[in-house]
Amino acid sequence: MLQIHKGGHTLAYKKDTLKNFYRTMVRIRLFEEKVQECFLGGELPGFVHLYIGEEAIAAGLLTEMDKEDYITSTHRGHGHCIGKGAQIKPMMAEIFGKSTGYCKGKGGSMHIADFSVGMLGANGVVGGGINLAVGAGLAAKMKKSGQIAATFFGDGGANRGTVHEGMNMAAIWKLPVIFVCEYNQYASTTPASYGTSVPDVSIRAQGYGMPSAIVNGNDVFAVNEASKIAIEYVRSGKGPYMLEFKTYRVKGHFVGDPEMYRSKQEVQEHFESDDPIKNFAKVVLAKKWMTQKEMDTIHSEVEQEVATAVEDARKDPYPDESELFNDYYVEVGVK
Amino acid sequence: MSEEMARDERVFVMGEDLARQGGIFGQFKGLPEQFGIERVRDTPISETAIVGAAVGAALAGMRPVADMHFADFIGVSMDEVFNQMAKVRYMFGAQCKVPLVLRAPDGMIRSAAAQHSQSVEAWFMHIPGIKVVIPSNPADAKGLLKAAIRSDDPVLYFEHKALFPLKGMVPDGEYIVPIGKANVVRPGKDVTIVSYSMMMNRVLEAADKLAAEGVNAECIDLRTISPLDKETVFESVRKTKRLVIVHEAVKQGGVGAELSACVAEEMIDWLDAPIKRLGAPFVPIPFSPALEGLCRISTDDIVKTTKEICR
After folding, report:
1. Residue A227 domain boundaries
2. Under the phi-then-psi rule, with left for phi > 0, alpha for psi from -120 to 50, and beta for the rest, what region is A247?
3. Whether this model's pTM surpasses 0.80
4. Rg from Cα positions in chain B
5. Assigned domain for A190 exists
6. Is B126 a catalytic residue?
7. Which residue of A lies nearest to B100 if distances are taken between CA atoms?
């Protein structure tokens, strides 16, 4: 039942697919770098959790899902939004707390959602999104719509009871749900080796009679190949599937995290030797699937896109005070 | 339930022991035969997943009704109730609706002891984003349930366990009790007595006894505790100048505390006597009938307290 999927870069990829992988990863990277810059510059309220170093997972998995499919995300959700097709401008505006944001400034970084692309929300409670995806999978099954749902959690979130209840429920009802563990080594400050009972979370999938795969999460090709198998499996009605992507959280738990629990050297070594975007470039250049120029073009287009999003977000208005009580109940009824 | 499930195929119910048992109090009997076990869905003992999945299904276009077995078990799924169900619509800037009903049988019956007897409704009036209804009789039970199922907002539906065997007139077909509107059940001029759920029945008995002694009590059934229909209560108190609030839940931090604070804050000058609250003492509910009885407000308690401020 458990597959180790390292990815052989053996499949043939269309140019569009390759460009899409690259664009998605660069979008996430540059978006996050800009968010970090704005946060450190004191421009952003609240706090932000960055997805840098984990981009291949969102790019390899989410570009393979349909627009109508559902996902639920975590506090580290910007990459999942972008991967599922959310627009950068309203995302940035939301993080700035502006009225033009996805949630009209009422959600912020940890609660970005775009229901028009099946993105049912990032979630500030670790493990909080798991059962929302189980429910979306249940709805899809009851409506016979052919949609599937995927839910993200980390090696930290894996220890929430919500994961146990959700996996069991999805398994007994054979729901079309992919449980996606982004094993990024740290639950806030706590290393997975300390806080998680097994080195591979996917071992636990066996306890629910669910197939699973361990995948190099920093290799977009491996991610994509494993995702195709998982998506086909759950869409065919066989039940849930678990994907465990091994990756590394390059940035602190949040921007401003003093990171007393690990050395700068550890982070540097990981990022230099195993950056998912560099990994991609190495493969496509060696195989002559893409040229450096093609990648550079995409990079500068995205750079411009992100810069514009920030400029707009800065200029956009904050929500009006009259917004406070809007969007609360659908029916206001008797006061 | 049956009428609403027939009316809208997006409505389904899930919870523990529904399909095979018809619900622990028989409240879902006949539904599995009529609608099948896909729409009357037995769940594992997983309150967290039940509420979480109900929220997710609602976000994905269904209209779930989730049963909590006992109101006491809501605590297991509290994050799903107050961080997910209550907040997602506002937090996501109204991109979604959460048409979800959480049914929660509460209250004391037959010495069920500390973890199966509680009335926890007040916790949920402290949470913006949830509507909380709590019927006192069979007709309202139908009317409020229909309103809750048709609401596009999440509704917590508390149903007192003693309500299940209660007999009473129930209107046929379309009978909807609006959420957020209190009901003046019995008009009177001397004192306002506010209550809800099973205690409302004790209040009406007390009002009969009080009438025999020359005290005309106006009795208000809140029906919904969030949003609270303060105006109906204020209007009554402007007339009677006296207020008694009665509930089965513990008195400390209860619905009565909120309501009396509102009255004191907004219209204290209208009062001719101190506000009185009747609620359970601040202890877990004990098992032995000899002790459990001490936690229960009786008709005579209501009569006695009301007379104290009507002298």
Report:
1. 2-7+14-313
2. beta
3. yes
4. 19
5. yes
6. no
7. A135
